[in-house]
Amino acid sequence: MIVAFSVSPLGVGEDVGEYVADAVRVVRESGLPNRTDAMFTSVEGEWDEVMDVVKRAVAAVEARCGRVSLVLKADIRPGVTDGLTSKVETVERYLAGGETPGTPEQPPAAP
């Protein structure tokens, strides 16, 4: 499973990078595959281990501010591993012209 999440402190002003860094530190120290971009951190693993990381990341921010906003999106697909890399590689192949996407099936022509 892949979980993309964003944790933000509330009531601390606009500069939240220091708080977000606390959450990202928890994710990186977990040892699970992860990526952080400008909006979300994605982490990949089994349900219980991923949710534990999210919970600890939220707790790290909450410990410093008392109120936290959490946005979470999950791709639950048993049997898939290395989705963080393979999903992006697939899109990159299409962008590079290395694969041609399937075309929608056309209805038969009228007689």
TrEMBL record:
InterPro entries in the cross-refs: MTH1187/YkoF-like (IPR029756), Thiamine_BP (IPR002767), UPF0045_domain (IPR051614)
Domain of life per record: Bacteria
Residue ranges of domain Thiamine-binding protein in the record: 3-92
One annotated Gene Ontology cellular component of this protein: cytosol
SUPFAM superfamilies: MTH1187/YkoF-like
Family: Belongs to the UPF0045 family.
Protein name per Swiss-Prot or TrEMBL: Thiamine-binding protein
